[in-house]
Every structure is written in C-alpha cells, then in structure tokens.
Amino acid sequence: MNFSELERIRVEKIERMRARGIEPYPTRAEVSHTTVQAIQLYEQAESAGSSDPVQVSVGGRLRAIRTMGKVTFAHIEDGWGRLQLFFRVNELGEAEMERFRDDFDLGDFIQASGVMFRTRSGEITLHVHAFKMLSKAITPLPAAKDEVVDGKVIRHAALTDPETRYRQRYADLAVNPEVREVFRIRARAVKALRDYLDNMGFLEVETPILQPIYGGAAARPFVTYHNQLKQNLYLRISFELYLKRLLVGMLDRVYEIGRDFRNEGVSYKHNPEFTQLEFYMAYADYLQVMEITEQMVAYVAQQVLGTTTITYEGHTIDLTPPWRRLELRQGILETTGIDIDQHPTAESLAEAMRAKGMQPKPGYSRGKLIDSLLGDYLEPTLIQPTFLYNYPRDISPLAKSMPGNPLITERFEGYIGGMELCNAFTELNDPLDQEQRFLEMGRDYNADDEERHPMDEDYLRAMSYGMPPCGGFGMGIDRLVMLLADRHTIREVILFPHLREEDRPGEKKEE
C-alpha cells in the first residue's frame, strides 16, 4: 500500500502500540449496549428516580475529540446513534489519559466502559472508567471531524462528491448518517412487500439466474459461458417465464424478489444490475392487479414512513388509493395532440410526429413509436400516481389482447414522480397465440435489436399443458426506494452501483 504522510503517522502509532504490548486490532470486544440503548437505559433510571449507577460498555467510531486540560470530551458513533464520552484524569490517571491522546485518532473504533450521567448542559454522557482500541483506522475518513455547537452536530468537510461516494460506499456510509437511513428504508420496504404478499397467500420462490434462453422483457442480456456443458447462458432479464411455468404446476400465487441483469445504457433510473419484484396470480386480470398494486404500494409507504404522503423532487405525492386511471391513447393525445388510433401504421404515425416537429427514429415499428411518445412527452407529466393502460400488441408480446380488439392488450404501467414504477398484464395463456407472437417478434426485429424476444420452446410446452388465466406484475425495487427516500438517481439507493472503470494515475485511456 502507498501511504500518505497522515497514514504513515498512524501506521507508526500501530507499531508503537504493539511494541508496548497493546494490540490495535484485538480479537474480542466486550460491548454490552448500543449507544441508543445506553441512553435509553439512563433515561429510564432517571425517570424512575433510581440512584443506582447505570454501568455500560459501548463501542463505536470516534467522531470528535476535544481536550480541555485534565478532561477530554469525545463523541462516538455506532450503527444506531452517537454518544458523548467523558475522560477525566481523576478516574483514569495521567498514564491512561496520555495513552488516549497518543494512540487514538478520529475514525478509530473504541470500546469505552463506565457510568452514565447527564452533564450540566443536559447531554447524556458516559463517564469513562476504562477504554481500549478495537480497530485502528489508518486512512482518515473524508469527513472526519464533527463538532457539537449548541446541541447540534456540525459536520466539517462533508463527503459530497458523487463519484467518491459511489466508488467508496463504505466511506460514504461511515460519514453520512442520512445515507445509512436510505438503506434502512430499503430493507424495511422489501420486508413490507414480503409481508403484504405473504398475507395474501402468495408463495415466495426462487427461479434460475443463469438461463439457457432469456425472456420475459425487452432487453439485451449479458452472455456467459458454461465450460463443462459447453453452453452459452444468459443472466436473466426477467423472472416472468419461469414464474408462469409454476402456475401451470398449480402454484396459483407466486412471487420472487431478486436481481435482474440488462446489458443496456445507464441513467438516473437504470443500472445494469437491479432488484425486481414480480408476482403472478391465477384467476386474476390486470384490473385486479391494479387494485393490488395501489394497495400494496400504499401499505409499504405506511409501514416504512408512517404515512402515504411522500415528497419526491419537491413534489408532494399522495399514494392513497385509488390512483388515477388514464388510457394510453388519451394520455398521448392530451400531451402531444396526436391520436394514435388515427394512425394505424408506423409510416402514418411517423408522419404525424414529424408534423408536430418531432424526429421519429427511422425503422421504428408503430409500437415503438408509441412507446417513444410515452417516454418523451407523457411520462414526465405523471407526477401523482397514475395507471396508464391498454398498450399496443407489438410491444406487449406476453399480454392478452382485449376482447374484440386484437391490436390492443390488457396491460398497464404505473407511474409516480414522472417515472415508470411497475408493469403488469392480463397474461397471455393461449400457447398457439403465444407461439405466433414469438414468431412475429423474431421476424419484425433485427438480430441485434434489444426488443427482439427469442422463441422459448419449453415455455410453450409448459403452456400447452394448460395455464390458468392470470394477472402478472413487475416492479423495480430500486425505483420504489428512490420515491420513498426522495433520492433522484438509482445510484443513491444501490449500495454498490456499477460505474465506469476508474482512471488510474499515469494511465492513458484508449480513444
């Protein structure tokens, strides 16, 4: 390791500690309470009028040190909160006070034991009778100094650079408590989703991540190779086709929460590796799934935040059901002035778009042109929860067509905060129709088009045994957390987001 001057000083401290027989990375810690538990324990004794000493042993990272003559105040922080420590020469002696000043730096993990009390300023504090090093920090944290002024924590040199925060998430978490809270929100949201679905009688299952045929979504997959089987495999882009196989097998309500992988561009709402919830429910249609969706998202918000009203990008958003329902055709007409029903071909629709000053991409199918109108013009306007429904058949290869209108499918997408949150269908369960859809997708798209959907013979075989009518649903967990935590990029809610390769000093990049 190449150490800076500050790091070399800390390494020398490690060597001096070991020379004195003190291990800076001991095997054991004797921590009896978290910082929050220690404070609560003292408050309970105080409320009960008890005069018995409240003795605790706590551990945490040193966040501030203030020496004033024969006393030293410090603050430690653990994963739950922070606590003030009080060191005094009367109890510890000159040698121990000197050891603390010489050996300990901001960022070190310390164990401190003693008696809780309240200072004259009213802060609950641990009067330290013994302490030891738990882990010596060699590298100073990017925001190593906190100061308490009038009872408020003032953080100096905060870590705010996004590039550093995402690449060194460990440092980001260590110095930014609000970032730790984002991932607690994420964990609570996943738990609430599970609770909701479990209470509805759904069974949580696991399906393959490595798949011989990818499918269930319109996306380009990651390809890998199995050496023993001499076989190309794909990281899954969706759980859909495997979960629907389980409906054939008489598991009527199933869901999975797990990772999907899509070899596509990155943006504020896209990461190549992301977390998805999908569920499939026999004997349901997309209208029933709409009701479940709005109830489930509201339930999660209530469980996680204690309210169904959230703030996202400055907007106050009410998740309380029922959500707005808007037919896709009507939404596009309102935002662009184009009635897609009046343009039954790709050529006609492209001409109408050009007449409005738009620049449709050459070679796009009618469905993909409609999708671009949605993404570019309608989606940004959908701030309050909205279900867009009834989508073109050629961009919904797994959805059932509406009775009497084979070109429109029973599909909806849910939008909140100007972005898509979820996608759902009345699922296609006719194997002959499904085979024809696969053939059309293979014929109408180029081999390298990410919208191309491969033929899955085994899935068709499963369907031929009989699949019950069903409703299916998929939602990005990362986007849900973005909404709940009021974070404006997906990288803020993924612990270790994918980034471009880091530039190395002196290394010239290829053009």
TrEMBL record:
This is Lysine--tRNA ligase. Mg(2+) 2 binds at E420. It catalyses: tRNA(Lys) + L-lysine + ATP = L-lysyl-tRNA(Lys) + AMP + diphosphate. NCBIfam families: lysS_bact, PRK00484.1. Homodimer. The keyword Nucleus does not apply. GO terms for molecular function: ATP binding; lysine-tRNA ligase activity; magnesium ion binding; tRNA binding. HAMAP family: Lys_tRNA_synth_class2.
